[in-house]
Amino acid sequence: MVNEEQYFEDLEDLEGVGDEDYAFFEASQRIVKGDATYSDAFDNTLSEDGQTELYEHRRVVADSGQNPVRVDKFLMDHLRDTSRNRIQKAAEAGYIMANGKPVKSNYKVKAGDVITLMFDRPKRDWEIIPEDIPLNIVYEDDQILLIDKPAGLVVHPGCGNFSGTLVNALAWHLKDDPRYDPNDPEVGLVHRIDKDTSGLLVVAKTPEAKTSLCKQFFYHTTRRLYNALVWGPFAQDEGTITGNIGRDPKDRLRMAVFPEGSDTGKHAVTHWRVLERFGPVTLLECRLETGRTHQIRAHMKHTGHPLFADERYGGDQILRGEQTSSYKAFIRNCIELCPRQALHAKTLGFQHPVTGEEMDFQSELAPDMLALIEKWRKRAVGG
What we know:
Blueprint: H1 4-7, E1 12-13, E2 16-17, E3 30-33, E4 55-61, E5 69-70, H2 71-78, H3 84-92, E6 96-98, E7 101-102, E8 108-109, E9 114-119, E10 137-140, E11 144-149, H4 166-173, E12 188-189, E13 198-204, H5 207-218, E14 223-231, E15 238-242, E16 244-248, E17 251-258, E18 269-277, E19 281-288, H6 295-302, H7 325-337, E20 343-351, E21 358-362, H8 367-380
Parallel strand pairs: 13-20
Antiparallel strand pairs: 1-2, 3-4, 4-9, 5-8, 6-7, 6-9, 10-11, 11-13, 12-13, 14-19, 14-20, 15-18, 16-17, 18-19, 20-21
Helix pairs in contact: 2-3
């Protein structure tokens, strides 16, 4: 039988989760998300007549104004981290149903159709347990919450991380708010950043707030700036990287960049601007036009400028500079100061979901990254 992981990329990699827009949003659709199964813990289950029993994992209900469209394209529009090829294979296996009946990938979805994705094992259900984990709260009102996340904190429970996450911490912080259910996907995180990236995240306390914020992320009207220390010099002061981002076929824990307009990956745009030059490394400001998993890390790797100390993308190697023992020791000391990708979500701006006020927040660089930059700054001036 077909394994779910063959068709749908986990919303989280083993280290944490990416900066993909998190919530299920589409103005004309109501999407009900089941919990993903992250392991093969469940054996295939046979029904009484000897047939493999299927379990519902995803459900999408077409709006009354839905125009006829192929089911593979329909699901591509509404399920994150997948590809049309995976959806087509799921359809061939009989795992996609329209109104309770298996359909092929060329089935035309109509208004009112209930499209379900089935698998041969039950959903894994886990409950978000409140945990007393300290939070750095930048702003809070009755609708939203701004968090300055430290590096090392996983955002959401998932493969290998079912406790000790930001979501568990939020459940504790909001445990006395009767409107907030940490197990309800209609409230909570709106977007994500990687485990080893520090910086700002916005949380919705109410369904109305989440719907509004998700629209803003979906239509790219939010304002997001990152600081990144990357390998190599830049001839220009600013530029733009455009290229589809999808799973690296050689390493599923990494993302890769594919040609713009190709069928592989998702459209992604990163704008960058030089803040400081330190010779072998450069401090950049990166502005996200889209929000894909590992977007900055993958785009910078693709252009020959991996983030400093980013082990996943080769930035923990000496890629520029001298080959002397003193320089090698300097790099080792730098990585000891900041033993993670040098990336910080510095600025987050959006329209308040209720008042409509334009709000912009800034976060100071994390201490480890600040110390790293200062060390390079001193070296650049001969200190």
